[in-house]
Amino acid sequence: MNQLPAIDPIPTVADVERIAALPDPVIRNLLITQCYHELAVVMTTRTGVNANWCTFATWASKQAGQTIRKEDVARTLENIVLSAPATAQAEQDIVASAQALGSEADEAEVEETLADLLNPLAAFDRASAAVGRGNKKVYEEIGREFARFVELCLGDAAFDADNLARFCAGLRPGEPPDGQDYLRRAFTRYYQALFESDAKQRAELMLLANIEIGFHEQTRLQPEIAVALNAAFVDRGPFRLRLIKALFPRRAWLARIRLFLLRLFDRP
């Protein structure tokens, strides 16, 4: 029977599944980060000071928590609004264009309309939701496999090819994002590292395993990464139409015609 390292608590597959199922993304993220830390510590009892993927995942999950709690996005917006001259210039250009097209709204009303339409809080929500989904997505897959590896393999006193094969049998064949071949390679290297006496060889095995899991992780996360990075962008066409309708509530159709003619003749 395998003897696990004397670390308490040792996260189990059931723990990972329970945490991943939590509906509150903020609480879930905090527990994910803590669980990654615990898994990282347990791994080091056999691999020494070499960092494993969970070491980096702890930091990444903590950083993700700032976006999930909407802290970093708020700071970024504050810096842009307070320090970027382009922001004030853009507002002035829109005010001038609106007045040139016959809008009755004054500068304050135009600025208020812009704030309502741009709705930066919605961008915070989109980024937070995307990062929260990604945090959960990675944890419920890779965190679960680390917990399973700790349970099945970490206590082996000698290299057991059959036990390693039993662990790998639980991984889906194929390339990411759907397959788990890179995870199979990575955990095979982690297992080899448990019994490698040469420190340099052990460090190289750990490094390659970390890179392989990182590649799998980033491939799987690409949809959520794209949504989070693009959360602040606005589709120009629909935004322009909403802005015209808001600034010209009774004559939006006329403003659209004038805007079309101005652009047709290369007028600003």
Quick summary:
74% of the residues lie in helices and 0% in strands. The protein has 268 residues and is mainly alpha-helical.
Describe what you observe in this structure.
With 268 residues, the protein is an all-alpha fold. It has one domain (13-234). It contains 12 helices and no strands. Helix 1 runs antiparallel to helix 7, helix 6 (107-118) packs antiparallel against helix 11 and helix 11 crosses helix 12 (252-264). The longest helix is centred in the middle third of the chain and has 33 residues, at 120-152. The model is unreliable at 1-5 (pLDDT under 50).
Annotation keywords:
single chain, 268 residues, 12 helices
Secondary structure layout:
Layout: H1 13-20, H2 25-47, H3 53-68, H4 71-83, H5 85-100, H6 107-118, H7 120-152, H8 161-168, H9 181-194, H10 199-229, H11 236-247, H12 252-264
Helix pairs in contact: 1-7, 2-3, 2-7, 3-7, 5-6, 6-11, 7-10, 9-10, 11-12
